Amino acid sequence: MNTAPSKSRPAPGWYKRLFAWLMAHANAEYEATVADRKRDLFTDLNGTVVEIGPGSGPNLAYYPADIRWIGIEPNPFMHVYLRQEAERLGLTVDIQTTSAERLEFADRSVDAVVSTLVLCSVPDLERTLHEIVRVLKPGGRFFFLEHVAAPANTRLRRVQQWIRPLWRAVGDGCNPDRETWVAIEQAGFAQIDYQHFRADLPAIVSPQIIGVATKATA
Ligand SMILES: C[S@@+](CC[C@H](N)C(=O)[O-])C[C@H]1O[C@@H](n2cnc3c(N)ncnc32)[C@H](O)[C@@H]1O
User: Fold this and answer.
1) Mutation test of ligand 1: which of 69, 118, 143 has the most ligand atoms closer than 8 Å to its C-beta?
2) By alpha-carbon position, which residue is closest to atom 23 of ligand 1?
3) What is the pLDDT of residues 112-141, one digit of tens each?
């Protein structure tokens, strides 16, 4: 399975700025197609919620006003969009320019972690999932919506593998063929409820998963 750590040179500032602009301005169509799924997914978030890679903030609109929200966003050019969106919604946000592989929270200290379209891009997927499990309180939940590898031995899977080097270069380190669900299943959660679905997106990133993984209560 392609879940091994990926290595690449850090992207230049102009590229990070362009990627942030694209995430803020070119995602409305996709967001509309997953709006109902996101509404269901985020329906009972509460307490301290850590979102990894929140990008320009498309998920903020779904959150209850009384949560404590902390965003882990290493691309500083995303922050202006995140703050604008938070201000529009009247939310208080705490943005940290760190990374999901090294969460600066105590063990068992957060109620929920959220990730949408991020686990494809983190350089070290297993390390990231280890950190998520570590910081969640007993019974805490990990909410995810991710694009993933197409089924094995399909034409689309072969195309995803073939295009991966180019896709990673132009897509801010995004791996189109990660079996992310396998890594989540192996991360040590007590229960995982998720489903595969096809998103209304270019074929390469249309296979997606959505679900909730729950940490053991003790
Ligand atoms: C494709 S964007 C998705 C943004 C947003 N979650 C959404 O659904 O539109 C991927 C995001 O993950 C962030 N990211 C990449 N590597 C990361 C890491 N190691 N830790 C945390 N965030 C990361 C990027 O900066 C970017 O904001």
Assistant:
1) 118
2) 53
3) 999 999 999 999 999 999 999 999 999 999
